[in-house]
Amino acid sequence: MKTILISGYEPFGRDTYNPSLEVAMALHGQTYKDYTFQYVKIPVNRRNCIPTMEQAIAAYEPEIVICTGLAYGRAGISIERVAINVADFPWADNAGYLALNEVIDPEGENAYFSTLPIRRIMTAIRENQIPAYISNSAGTYCCNMLMYGTLNYIKKRQLPIKAGMIHVPYTPEMVIDKEFTMPSMSLDRMIQAVKTAAIISAEHQDDISVVCGMAQ
Q1: Residues 49, 63, 67, 80: which is the catalytic one?
Q2: 149-180: per-residue pLDDT in tens?
Q3: Model-level pTM?
Q4: Can you point out the beta strands (E) in the chain?
Q5: What are the backbone angles phi and psi of residue 69, rounded to the nearest 5°?
Q6: 167 flagged as catalytic
Q7: What is the C-alpha separation between 74 and 19, in angstroms, rounded?
Q8: Which among 143, 173, 179, 203 is annotated as catalytic?
Q9: Which one of 167, 173, 204, 212 is the catalytic residue?
Q10: Residue 49 designated active-site
């Protein structure tokens, strides 16, 4: 069997739940044709975030890696286009560390683009009546760092792996004690969206040309 590796983050900040981890765990063990889904739990930690992913890639030898993370205030599934070589945290990680304008890898590229067929993914998710768009910024917190570190690891070792990052919103239960205008999405829709992204990535090597993205 070939492997699709889905990562999800542990809870962080004041939240005790992270839907990205729930998505990854829900897909674990599922199959699609000759692919099987595996998951890895990523710590919200400057030091251990990337090494945890590197260990998982070495263990599972996946054909596809989809990193997932929680995006504060976003209303749809955000398919990330690019990761930059910067860690500039808006708040401390779960170990209490605050990275300020740090380079993730001094020997790495300034940025890496997703190698997933992001436009095909966006289109397929929308066809399932789930809001989705291509995001041009993965931020500068741990999600950007994980996407960058994953693509950097793959590039340096010349591995035949397609990889990228998808952000999911809050679930409705998570916004009860937040601002009443905070957007959310059901976990079932998130799972469907990420599974769709994985299937599209397995089925297609090329991407399509469609209008996409949001000004950010």
Answers
A1: 80
A2: 999 999 999 999 999 999 999 999 999 988 77
A3: 0.95
A4: 2-9, 31-32, 35-42, 64-70, 77-80, 82-84, 111-113, 132-135, 162-168
A5: -155, 165
A6: yes
A7: 13
A8: 143
A9: 167
A10: no
